[in-house]
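Re: that chain you flagged

S.,

Sorry for the slow reply, it's been a week of failed gels. I finally had a moment to sit down with the sequence you sent. For the record, here it is as I used it:
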Amino acid sequence: ILWLGASYLLLWLFLSGGIVDRYARDRATRTYEFLTACGVYFVRFLRLAPLIALTYYALFAYVHPFLLGRLYDELTRDVTVERTAFALRLALYAAFAALLGLTSVVFDYAKVRAVVEDRRSMIGALAASLRFVRRNFAGVASLYLLNGLLFVGVLVAYALAAPGAGSSG
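Prediction finished late last night. Pasting the structure tokens below so you have them in one place:
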């Protein structure tokens, strides 16, 4: 399973450069042009991948245990109402989800900046991405929220359309 997951990530890392390049050009591209763009940006995105992995590792290894372990325990130490503890847990999960979303957006925009501006430096693309997200935070957050709502809508539609276990369909 680990090899399949790594292969999936590498495939998307390869294809994402060609996909973003295709949208940036705003015109049809031939197969060899698409694959050339995939290869060019794959190498650049491969240099960005350790930064992405390190950031997600730090979030899940340190921030998540802090928020939902130590901080949650501190905040609920003297709480006697279960509803309050549950609300705090939801708020901390929402804060962690917001950090994950912000991280995802920053790295996605770094990839876009690398393609659109033909950047070779992934640190430069990352810095440009951070500046862009900071300057346009409301628009970026709205777009991310709309994408998330669309995903939830697709899940709800699937849950309504798919037959449940034990049904004839």
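What I noticed first: The helical segments are 2-25, 31-75, 82-116, 122-135, 137-161.

Talk soon,
D.
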